[in-house]
Design goal:
The protein contains nine helices and eight strands. It has about 230 residues and is an alpha/beta fold. Helix 1 packs across helix 9. The mean pLDDT is about 90. It is found in: Cytoplasm.
Length: about 230
Amino acid sequence: MRAIAIDGPAGAGKSTVARRVAERLGAKYIDTGAFYRALALKAREAGVSADDEEALARLWAESEIALEGAGGAVRIRLDGRDVTEAIRRPEIGAAASRVARHPAVRAAVVARLRHLAEREAVVMDGRDIGTVVLPEARIKIFLTASPEARARRRHAELAAAGYAVRFEDVLAELVARDRQDMTRETAPLRKAPDAIEIDTTDKSIEEVVGAIVALAEAQHQAFLSVEGR
């Protein structure tokens, strides 16, 4: 399987790192959280509770969630409309964490993700990629950082997007989400035994990306398809 699995808690830099690694290696970036966020958005719009597992499973079956674009420039479409920005709203992120707790929902999403990974070279990030979704991936990375560093990054992202939120509130929400992700019964957040841990607290994005690309090159992975290699 031509895949790099990147896991870690919220704010560790997974999406940014995975997107740039995909660009460097000529692979497709797959943001697994986007699937849960898109479903959470549709549930919110349809008046379906994020705690109603049966209704959410039906909603997933009725939905068309697609990733469009190449490399790291991937857009998210829900039933034909672009929701790339809409699913990044804070309330959708919180709802997505609740949606992702349900076994029926996770089973459906995981099946879709595995299908995508079988078709082409991918860099996939999330919270259970190396442990549940793609346990056979040859390269597994676990990104982490201090809660304060992760909260600062998230706060900056929200501010740049025009959301007026207090740093203290962002930090509290992040800590609560960590607790929920690590203690949920279905596919909790944890490091795969064979994953390489990288603490991003004091590292730049390019340092982390460079380390992962170097690792891929050292292992002579088949997904290294960038022209000139």
